[in-house]
Amino acid sequence: MAFMAPTEILAEQHFTNISRLLQPSRFRVALLTGSTKAAARRAQLADVERGDIHLVVGTHALVQGDVAFKQLGLVVIDEQHRFGVLQRATLREKGLHPDVLVMTATPIPRTLALTVYGDLDVSMIRELPAGRLPIRTTAKPESRRDEIYQFVREQLDAGRQAYVIYPLVEESAKLDLKAATEMADHLATEVFPAYRVGLLHGRMKADAKDRVMKAFLAGELQLLVSTTVVEVGVDVPNASVMIVEHAERFGLSQLHQLRGRVGRDRHQSFCFLLYQHPLSDEARERLKAMTDTTDGFEIAERDLKLRGPGDFFGTRQAGVPTFRMIDLVRDRELLDQAQREAATWFASALPDATGVGKLLASWEQRFKLIEIG
User: Fold this and answer.
1) pTM of the model
2) pLDDT tens, 88-97?
3) Does residue 166 contact residue 183 with C-beta atoms inside 8 Å?
4) Do 166 and 80 reside in the same domain of the chain?
């Protein structure tokens, strides 16, 4: 079995949790990332190829050419929207028609699910885990910063932890954004001198990131200043406050992911979206969507209306068809009907009738979205 995650931090968390769950069993679990040392990697790859390791958790390192499985029967891809279609296909092709489970906490509109995942069985989990409370989200101008800081102090004194998210690592005069490194020092020395403050960003070496995240998870750090490297999958149940600086510069799906870093335990959690004036109409709508609802599916629909289908996935993934004659919001019912009709037609057509075979072969090669049985 292969379990692929987009970042080393997330892969390590999955490895730790899965190892703990399987510890009483006979199954062996290994972690394979870009930071795995050459000697350890060679030994692991040999064990995987022999079948001595039953489950490999890893990052993009799993799709490298030298990774071979004895009998790969199940592929699990977490935060699948962070991977390209070809990366997912490459991992799948390392087995003989393995079962594939793709997961994401970033919901997409139903109309996009019909088109992008039309070949998959789609399951949606809409309920919060037992005991969880909805996150209270508030958008505040920067002039209200001091009262938010005071609220954070109260949360830290109560034993909770907090995130402060910044868009960039280095100063940018063009965008006039605060640098995460400078602000981490400012918060540690002037705003929260009585608390332990850490810094995390994407340009740190893997072992340095690991030390910071482990310290935050263990409660050794109370406040974590970070860039969006924590956007995906970071799980610190004791964290109850998320502050997003320059929230007007983030997209809706990213804001929703960042908010999801808190509210992971039974404590009431809070998300503060700090913004600068003037706000564009679109930025105002994004902030309103975040404060109106915590329902990711509703947020996804609003995001589609604001950005349009062409920009919904950010950098275009290989294999995602373009739409020339339909509107994913306006034509929802038509798309639903078209998918049902197409499924009926393919089921009743002979494999090579009317060019169906050639069409499927072409799309299999171009889009990697379907498999020919």
Assistant:
1) 0.73
2) 788 888 988 8
3) yes
4) no
